[in-house]
Amino acid sequence: MTKSALQIARAAYQPKLPKALRGAVKASEGEPTQSVADQHAIKELFPNTYGMPIVKFVESDQKVEYPAINVGVILSGGQAPGGHNVISGIFDGVKKLNPDSKLYGFILGPGGLVDHNYMELTADIIDEYRNTGGFDMIGSGRTKLETTDQFEKGLKIIRELGIKAIVIIGGDDSNTNACVLAEYYAAKKYGVQVIGCPKTIDGDLKNEMIETSFGFDTACKVYSEVIGNIQRDCNSARKYWHFIKLMGRSASHIALECALQVQPNVCIVSEEVEAKNMSLDDVVTYVANSVAARAAQGKNFGTVLIPEGLIEFIPAMKALISELNDFLASNAEEFSHIKKSHQRDYIISKLSKVNAEIYASLPEGVARQLTLDRDPHGNVQVSLIETEKLLAEMVGNKLAEWKEQGKFVGKFASQVHFFGYEGRCAAPSNYDADYCYSLGYAASALIANGKTGYMSSIRNTTAPADQWIAGGVPITMMMNMEKRHGEMKPVIQKALVKLDGKPFQAFAAKRDEWAINTDYVYPGPIQYFGPTEVCDQPTKTLQLEQSK
């Protein structure tokens, strides 16, 4: 691998660790837990891993001699900055327990476990990837671990390599799979531990014990830098409205965090759209009003931030997508044989009257995008729906109508952008480098303490790293029942933007000013080196949430 100057410099960075993980570690256990909802159903499905206590690691004077252990690690789902540091943390953690311990990486995600595709991760390999972005050390994949056949195939290579524990690094769906695997191996008394780590740039895998998912900090800083560049261009040329869609399919955390960092003219928050029962036309009118208000001041330019999953939060669209999901889950084979030119009419003929009318009213491109193949979890692939183009076009049409009626006197020209993949493999910020390394190290401590069905947890991360609280949370504690592929399934409950939470309230208090004024912030690139107030700060979201 040819290294850039940045990579060479970053390799020398030593991630910070919580004080409790630096020496001998003792596990302190709390009270029994229960799932966030649907307690009876979750307990019935996970009898061997339900109700376990929260674990907190504390410093210990007792030195314990651990036998050498072999551990397997899997990167699952979309990339997020810091994954390599989680693996580095696991490696250093198990080597500290016993220098003869080994770490195996399964190639290209959970499929590597099932297909017995793996490599031993040695110190030379680990050192190549410390503090780097991407998941290219072992690759990632989206294979779902859900069948007995997969579990048993995985067990075969686990036994062959003498692996004691598997660490699955992933988002809510991947950690749900980790929980199912942990339960299966526990029920069979196979003696194989399964630990999860919270990854997703979307920021929707969090709760009182998981402050943030790793990668969110870095991705938001990368997007904010580019949005800041666009806003500077916007304020220089003064002739375009930029419609910028940001990743985050199930929650608006990224859009909200970027808004707090760059102060755009408009930021749509999907959760608010749903709470206010807004229609697509309501959203378009809201943006058009901002354009008209600025035009009245002679400002024919601006920026609009749009969450990737907006379409699914518009109540009428949500109902349509729900019916489409159920219909396509049951009739996928028949639909695949319908000619593309007839698919629209076919769908309209199969939907309920209300949803058929909404579907028929959509532009051809958006209607087609709603019927594309679902992801492995049965969800619409919202990243393929060009919401930014849809809104730019519809706002343009609305303003043209107003112009004819004498309600709009300005000019309107738009540019569209989608920022997603640009942020997923960025070199991790200092925060993510430290947080991820600590998550991996804590995972090794959970393994040493015989835990399974737990997610690694690092809290109090707005404080200096030596004050961070390391431990583990039972994955069942985060679960509820949701409909997937037409059936009720146990899944980790997604964390949406709370409209009464401090981050949204801070945004809501300022957005009317930002809408009219050109009060842009240009945050610039992530700073790795320099004053701590520049380079070591967590997201504004986390700072607001944790402020006392």
Describe this structure in words.
The protein is of the alpha/beta class. It has two domains: 19-215 and 429-492, Rossmann fold, CATH 3.40.50; 241-412 and 500-525, Phosphofructokinase domain (Rossmann fold), CATH 3.40.50.460. The protein is 45% helix and 16% strand. The chain has 22 helices and 15 strands. The chain has helices at 5-11, 39-45, 83-97, 110-114, 123-129, 148-161, 172-187, 216-237, 253-262, 270-275, 280-295, 310-313, 315-336, 340-350, 353-361, 364-369, 387-404, 421-424, 430-448, 502-516, 532-535, 540-546; strands spanning 25-32, 53-59, 70-75, 102-106, 118-120, 163-170, 193-198, 241-246, 266-267, 302-307, 414-419, 454-459, 469-474, 479-484, 487-492. A nine-stranded mixed sheet has the order 1-2-13-12-7-6-3-4-5, with helices on both faces. α13 crosses α15. The longest helix is centred in the middle third of the chain and has 22 residues, at 216-237. The protein is globular, with a radius of gyration of 24 Å. The model has no long low-confidence stretch (mean pLDDT 94).
